[in-house]
UniProtKB/TrEMBL annotation:
This is Prepilin peptidase. Belongs to the peptidase A24 family. It is found in: Cell membrane. GO terms for cellular component: plasma membrane. Residues 11-92 form the Prepilin peptidase A24 N-terminal domain. It holds the Pfam family A24_N_bact. GO terms for biological process: signal peptide processing. It is a multi-pass membrane protein.
Length: 268
């Protein structure tokens, strides 16, 4: 039974992931979210069998059936990621499915995580976090935290309610003092949701995970591209001043805490 549920959650995740791809590509670009999918290069209308998540990309070898131009890797990666996240949400739920807390976590996760995946993809692609998405996450996670405190018993205390605003303050100061040059405020708005979804301890763990992951990947990119630009003149080096989208690292931290029990406070 539970393995069947996990199987269906992966299928559902992949299908939702392919919809999230459309949102990532078209949100705020003036194109409608609805409407038929077509090749970005030759406008060839895609048939249903070109739209099967992950499978179609593999069968087509990552190329358009009509003009053979490359299809973005974003498609299969977001579909795989969403499938994996849905698997984790279901697996976590199945560990202890009969408490109010677990049902609440399940319900809100199925709404909040797709939004987080869109934010992740959007930040990578467009280098910005849309307000509409990040405020929806903040509102949803605030409601989640209030329900947990009110009805779910072990679902945390008022300190977890303060976690969101407390995490927001340092991001706001960085943004304010630098006039937005060091960091956009989008990451701060996202940290509201981190605090309310994961509480104080979980939230701190996610933020620290995100900062370390971002720093390691950032330094790695600086090193690689500076070697590349020396070998090949004209290619642009990533410097410490280049903007590295930060939301994906924060969301990776949230993933580590919620699904893999990552904690800096494991001994407490
Ligand atoms: Zn094409």
């Amino acid at each position: 039974m539970s393995s069947l549920l996990l199987f269906y959650s992966v299928i559902l995740g992949a299908i939702i992931g392919s919809f999230l791809n459309v949102v990532i590509f078209r949100f705020h670009t003036g194109r409608s979210i609805g409407g038929r999918s077509s090749c970005a290069t030759c406008a060839h209308r895609l048939k249903w069998f070109d739209l099967i998540p992950i499978v179609s990309f593999v069968i087509l070898g990552g190329k358009c059936r009509s003009c053979h131009s490359r299809i973005s890797w974003q498609y299969p990666l977001i579909e795989l990621l969403t499938a994996a996240v849905f698997f984790c949400i279901t697996a976590n739920f199945l560990e202890n499915p009969n408490t109010i807390a677990e049902w609440t976590v399940l319900g809100f996760s199925l709404v909040v995580w797709p939004l987080l995946i869109v934010i992740l993809g959007y930040d990578l692609r467009h280098k910005i976090i849309p307000d509409a998405l990040v405020y929806t996450v903040a509102l949803g996670t605030l409601l989640f935290r209030l329900i947990m405190i009110a009805f779910a018993g072990e679902g945390g205390s008022w300190i977890d309610l303060l976690a969101g605003p407390i995490f927001f303050i340092p991001f706001f100061l960085l943004w304010f003092l630098s006039n937005g040059r060091w960091m956009g405020l989008g990451d701060g708005k996202l940290s509201l949701g981190i605090g309310w979804l994961l509480g104080m301890y979980g939230g701190i763990s996610a933020l620290v995970f995100g900062f370390w992951a971002g720093a390691i990947v950032g330094l790695f990119l600086v090193a690689i591209t500076s070697v590349q630009s020396r070998l090949k003149r004209g290619s642009k080096a990533v410097t410490m001043k280049s903007e590295l989208p930060f939301a994906p690292f924060l969301i990776a931290g949230m993933c580590a805490v919620q699904f893999f029990n990552f904690s800096l406070f494991a001994g407490l």
